[in-house]
Backbone:
């Protein structure tokens, strides 16, 4: 059941992405030849006006066909629109994905009775960081090495980004920012319930607040998701993680299935899966805006380059050449997806 739910989540997120392009195109009076839900052979088709609406066999995506890589004599065609309209249509897909993630969070986060905060409420016994030269009870961790701290769960993540024990920390203390530059902070061994564990030795608070706090927490969750995606991309570029650590649709479906099966109750499973769906939606938004050919970000980059060239040389570029670049990029992306999928399948059996 959870595998089916995961597949439907992917399909829904792709459809909402294409719906963003479709809605923006309609608002800009750009003709859409076909709007399809699903891929593969058509199960149902209906022509309404200039657009063919189709329901296709496999619930793994969809598409919005505007012939954006073709030259046209139609003044309403995508390639003949003003640059800002084309920009709006291209960015609308990622915008819809981000909005979808935000809406999912709005349904699950504000209902929480309390929210974890990065405010220090106490210290482990003999914690070396307590004192006037370090942390004090009531301090709120605001930034670590230049990165905002939204929740107490961010702290271990941000401190673990490097092997160094030296960090630049900004606190909120009595309403004012206090900088602890080059502050040495690392985990210390403590004994808890007869077991030796490594901890920073800090206790953090929980606030019971109302709707406004829930809305703020929701927004910060979405911002944190965006940052997590960028950190993952940064780790991939710098070599901190390799292709083997990447997961595609197969791997993520497996994760959603594991989360559902290990949850104590159906309600807990629904909450955890919805949280994952929100993260995936925001992830898709960020990834689609990367300046890579065949992605929306690549099309946006070519749009800006085209506008600059046309402004300088007063000559319109044939969109078919951009189409060739995106076609090549699409083939490379398919190759990468195949490698990731094979790796995901391999990990299922090892």
Residues:
């Amino acid at each position: 059941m959870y595998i089916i739910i995961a597949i439907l989540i992917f399909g829904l997120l792709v459809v909402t992405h294409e719906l963003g392009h479709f809605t923006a195109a309609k608002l800009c009076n750009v003709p859409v030849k076909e709007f399809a839900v699903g891929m593969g052979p058509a199960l149902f088709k209906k022509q309404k006006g200039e657009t063919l609406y189709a329901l296709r066999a496999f619930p793994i995506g969809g598409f919005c066909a505007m012939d954006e890589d073709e030259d046209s004599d139609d003044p309403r065609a995508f390639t003949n629109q003003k640059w800002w309209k084309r920009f709006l249509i291209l960015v609308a897909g990622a915008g819809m994905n981000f909005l979808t993630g935000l809406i999912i969070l709005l349904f699950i986060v504000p209902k929480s009775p309390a929210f974890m905060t990065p405010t220090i409420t106490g210290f482990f016994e003999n914690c070396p960081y307590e004192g006037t030269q370090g942390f004090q009870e009531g301090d709120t961790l605001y930034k670590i090495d230049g990165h905002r701290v939204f929740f107490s769960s961010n702290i271990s993540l941000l401190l673990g980004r490097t092997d160094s024990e030296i960090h630049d920390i900004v606190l909120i203390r009595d309403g004012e920012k206090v900088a602890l530059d080059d502050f040495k902070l690392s985990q210390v061994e403590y004994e808890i319930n007869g077991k030796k564990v490594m901890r920073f030795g800090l206790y953090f608070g929980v606030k019971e607040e109302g709707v406004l706090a829930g809305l703020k927490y929701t927004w910060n969750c979405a911002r944190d998701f965006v940052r997590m995606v960028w950190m993952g991309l940064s780790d991939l570029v710098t070599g901190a993680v390799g292709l083997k650590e990447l997961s595609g649709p197969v791997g993520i479906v497996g994760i959603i299935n594991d989360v559902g099966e290990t949850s104590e109750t159906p309600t807990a499973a629904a909450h955890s899966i919805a949280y994952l769906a929100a993260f995936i939606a925001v992830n898709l938004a960020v990834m689609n805006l990367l300046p890579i050919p065949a992605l929306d970000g690549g099309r946006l980059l070519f749009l800006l380059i085209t506008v600059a060239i046309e402004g300088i040389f007063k000559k319109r570029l044939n969109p078919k050449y951009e189409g060739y670049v995106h076609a090549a990029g699409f083939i490379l992306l398919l190759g990468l997806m195949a490698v990731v999928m094979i790796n995901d399948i391999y990990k299922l059996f090892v």
Observations:
- The longest helix spans residues 319-348.
